[in-house]
Amino acid sequence: MTKTYLTPPLEVERSWYVVDAADQRLGRLATEVAKVLRGKNKPNYAPHMDTGDFVVIINADKVVVTGKKRFQKVYRRHSGRPGGMKTETFEQLQNRIPERIVEKAVKGMLPKNALGRKLFTKLNVYAGPDHPHQAQQPETLTINTIPGGTR
């Protein structure tokens, strides 16, 4: 009887990738990044293990959404106190903290458990074109999403 081979966690090879989010659509970018973080693009993928790679996203301030989402999409957060809910639109959050938009989109596509929280730590998002991960020699990952959208 043959058994399925699982790579031991210490033998999983991890790569670093850089993704340029300039003029990319938010949802399509987030799904591809979530696949790489999860390790679904590798032959040794296992749903219960962390086999994914590290991803650095640059130019998060230039990500776009289509239609009226720029003005109608709402991001909510709560302080935990009564009446502590704060809401802001995509455009307001992009002006204030553009990294958070991409982080929330990717985090929503990861598992909602301890594995998902561990995978999320391998995501690094930066608003501009510079990042401090040059020492890891990241490869450029081209994501073929549909560019553009309404600005």
Offer a few descriptive terms.
two-stranded antiparallel sheet; 27% helix; 6 strands; alpha/beta; 5 helices; four-stranded parallel β-sheet; 151 residues; single chain; Ribosomal Protein L13p, Chain: A
Describe what you observe in this structure:
Belongs to the universal ribosomal protein uL13 family. This is Large ribosomal subunit protein uL13. Keywords: Ribonucleoprotein, Ribosomal protein. It comes from Vasconcelosia minhoensis LEGE 07310. The structure is a single chain. With about 150 residues, this protein is an alpha/beta fold. The chain has a domain of about 90 residues: Ribosomal protein L13 (Ribosomal Protein L13p, Chain: A). The chain is built from 5 helices and 6 strands. Strands 5-2-1-6 form a 4-stranded parallel sheet, covered by helices on one side. A two-stranded antiparallel sheet has the order 3-4.
